[in-house]
Amino acid sequence: MVEAKEKITVSFTVNGGDVEIQVAPEMALVDMLRDGLLLKGAKRSCDMQVCGACTVLVDGVPVSSCTVPAFEVRGKSVTTIEGLAADDRLAGLTDAFIDNAAIQCGFCTPGMVLAAKSLLDSNPDPSEDEIKDYMRGNICRCTGYKKIVEAIREAADKAVQA
Amino acid sequence: MTQERQFNTVGQSVKRIDAFDKISGRAVYSVDVVVPGMAYAKLVPSPLPHARIKSIDASRARALPGVYAVLTGAELVNMETHYGSDKKDRPIVALEKVRFQGEPVAAVAAVDLATAEAAAELVDVEYEELSAASNLASALLPDAEPIHDSNYCHEYGYEWGDVDRAFAGCDRIFEDTFVFPMVYHYAMEPHTCVVSYEGDRIRTWTSAQHPFLVRAELARIFGMQLDQVQVVVPYVGGGYGSKSYTKIEPIVAALSREAGRPVRLAQSVEESMKTVRRHAARATVRTGVMNDGTFVARECLSYVDTGGYTDNGVRVTERISDRIVGPYMFNNVRVKSYGIYTNTTPAGSYRSIGGPQASWACESQTDIIAEALGIDPIELRLKNLAKKGDQVRRGKRPLEGDLAPKLQMVLDKFGWGNYVREDPSPTVKRGIGFACNVTNSGASPTSTSLVRFHADGSATVYIGTTELGQGSRSVMAQIAAEELRIPLSSIKVIGSDTDAVPYDRSTGSSRSTTLMGLAVHDAAVDVREQLMELAAKHFETFPDQIDAADSQASFKGESLTFGALVREMFGGSGGELMGRSYVTQNHSSGRLTEDPVFWEVSIGAAEVEVDEDTGTVKLLRYVSASDPGKAINPKQVEGQDEGAAMQAIGHSMFEEMLFEEGQFLNPNLVDYRVPTFEDLPGEFETVLIEFGDGPGPYGAKGVGEGGIVCVAPAIANAIFNATGVRLHELPLTPERVWRGIEESRR
Amino acid sequence: MKPFRLYEPTTINETVATLSSLSVGGKLYAGGTELLLAMKTGLLQYEGLVNVKSVPELDGVSFADDTLTIGARATHSMVEHSADVLAHAPLIASVEHRIANVRVRNVGTVVGNLCFAEPHSDPGALLLLYEAVVDIASPSGPRSVSVEELVVGPYETSLAGDELVTHVRVPLLPTGMRGAYLKFGYHHRPTLGVGAAVTVVDGKFVDVRLTLGSAPPKPTRLREAETLLHGAATDDGAVATEAGRIAAEACDAIDDLHGSAEYKRHLVQVFVQRALTEAVERGVK
Predict the structure, then answer these.
(1) Quick check: C220 and C193 in contact, CB under 8 A?
(2) How far B209 CA sits from the closest chain A CA (Å)?
(3) I need a labelling partner for A51 at 20 to 30 A (CA). Which of B2, B163, B195, B424 fits?
(4) What is the pLDDT of residue B1?
(5) How far apart are CA A30 and CA A21, in angstroms?
(6) Same domain, A93 and A76
């Protein structure tokens, strides 16, 4: 067995619900979410903050949960893909992704959608260049990106009209 | 005929049936599978690329609390020790020697991953280092240390006509050599599996593309019957060929047997980059032509680098030769290729095996020839292009459709004829380039399907096809809905569980819509015909008098739901109809006996901007083509083509696995550069071509691979058009382009 | 990652004391975007990480006396979006915006980046252009050194193991001086970064600063090239070319995954000239 040197109590909010969990300092946020809380939406892929498959929102901003330690969310609000169903604007984003065939294997999708949500939260009407710039940290190997850009543009259009 | 039919769902870009699963986070991938009592595995990789194993001492590792088992070669008893698709040359765990850096020499199963990792570090291995060959050149040296019996894996060739005499009679002969790099698929989900070895049966959940082939392999290794092995493939986070055939299941199964409990291995991206890659290649194309541009003779010699083990090396060696003649009619051809072992990651399937490598060579040369003869590169292609019915490769199926109109569609979309070159500055140049090819696709016509039609009018469709992202579940649902005459929302698709679904050979080589699609189509028709029989009985008429639409059977103004027909048959509230089908080479009146199942067409046009001072190439525009015959789901078809083209942008511009004396220098995503949003060309279009010329349902044929084949030569041809510099080696990094420009100036 | 213990001091003094007591087993931890990566791959290993984010004194971004002060807790994102930075040194905001990706910027810190001293990186070369200074807390009392003196080589700073950079102070460019920063590369990390800040009077360079990052082993000030440019006309192509040549020779580049040393030196030549042009024509504060 490999024993942790200590345990840290992490009290935080995830998807609107309060949680308290004990973690070792070296535990990554993605492992706490996936194994501790069974929120399997966030994925581990590159494990080096390059691909974005592990993207979750902490206090509304995207972070790489593969590298951010679990203890860092103490007192913070975490949003994973599972928590987005209730969000109205997100329903528009979800529909746009689905309608524009912006999902293929789906492994990048949770991280991609959360990044897109964060983009639209800070910039509700982004140009194509702004979308590419903001989203360049989220990799997709299936779609070739075009339909994801179209989906984000459509979600932005619909939200602006609403 | 099929063009006039009115469809209900076929031809519509319906929402993927797995879309909500995937976007909500509840889609299950292999890494999400948890089995009671499951242990966690860590492989012990060889740090050396080529070495004899002198000893392995796992005692310290085994003694670590929480370790259930350590598997080494010594534990591979009462079982087959090797596996592989065409050659069973891959040991389940390294035996007497290691042949590439990263080859597993042991595997640890422990109570958690941290313990397994700690134990892996305690496995002591003594090696006797051997000299390593990192590339084709060093592997082919006469005194190279043989990696297997020799460094030759496979040899292939064919010829027709009289090549030597033909060359003698040509006006011009061109000979050029091209180099294609080692690249990695980077499926975002690394190879992952859970295997439970249970004495008289094996169960596995794995991100594999071909569950039935994995089942056969595991059964053979452990001396079991097919029914004793269950392979379940959940959603796969990307395949592209990297998860073809059998990869990590045997070692995990053996470890599970050793540990006496289920074991999960979830590889890291680095470990997966040390599991499989695309074949690098060196291809020499020699072409004899007349001054008027007539292609007379072609002779090719290709070497493909298959890494430390064969994996799919036999077929790739063959396909590069099949594809290097291009889409042109040559009366004299002699093609030869060799698969060569090197001490690097084994090379296997990757989207259009041998296709990009072959086209990089032959379609670059087409423009070289055009330039030398003073003929427009499009005119040169059109002059020699194969036509419908031509034997573009002797002994193979003739070309099913005309290519010239397909080329024209892409050229028109691109605005090729109207292109006016505008260089932004004296040192920033623009240019356009084009490439096309045909690739033999479809693999093997061996598919079966089962449709269960329920008593409430809904249906379940069983397919062996794995859902890798290509949208197979949705396409099969659409075909079934169409033929059953029920709404898409009444269809459930069950896939890729060898205990539950009937046999399908594989998911790859663009075969699923065509072959599994035919199977689903036929099984659904089988059900519909049974429903018509029931309706005929009910209405006291003949089946051909019954009108079937919208889940109902109608006759002379009266109708009955399909569900009611089923219930009536069984006389209660339950019951079920079953439809089944077999697709073999005898299907479609023997149409599938010819090889290939179909020719996949590949076309691409590119506009680039080259900064000559730095060598930076910006891809301004790219127009690709997707030729599905009939697009069952047009947006999905586009998405596949766009994805394929983007992967090709990767291998064209910056992707390269670098090895030095067998040491893998960049096995991670920081140092191995894959395309991002910023690599999207300003204009990125796919032309959808639907001439109904495929052997699949409604004239459909496969897609997904064509888009990756012609990007590199189109870009290189555009760079030549812009700067006059011809490049022979990929990727076209800024440094490579800059050096090419500098050399041309001397 | 191997297990470690987390220390969370609440004052600068406590931080220094904790570092001292941990000795080689301890390391400062802020965003961890580079440190944790190295620990995950096993390249680095520490018994204890000392969290600077629990120290309020190390906070954020502030502006006073023509100087931007960036605390050790400030992330790239904070700097990128800071009203003070956008108003007084927009060049810094624009370069920070292009670092890595949005997730790394939300977590990684500017001070952490300087101290990790990854050669293929922008903040060092950028802040060198501003002649920035770091404030250091240590057991023997506070001291300050220029960024130039802080970073001494690849992954190497002049800090002792028990020292902590608390802030980086960035003086604004002098009145009339305008800057540009060009970066080049297609990898995840940059291959080359060139900073140029110029003061132009009557079409001549009156003051020039040139910095180089990513290609050399550490952020480098190109003083010889600067000297050459002093007094030269901004449209004097020959001088600009010569300055580029000198800069390339000063580059000390090596062959690596980003390219050959020869190519990198060539890029230096090209980009020094381009950065000068950019600074002259479109330079910002």
Answers:
(1) no
(2) 13
(3) B195
(4) 44
(5) 14
(6) no
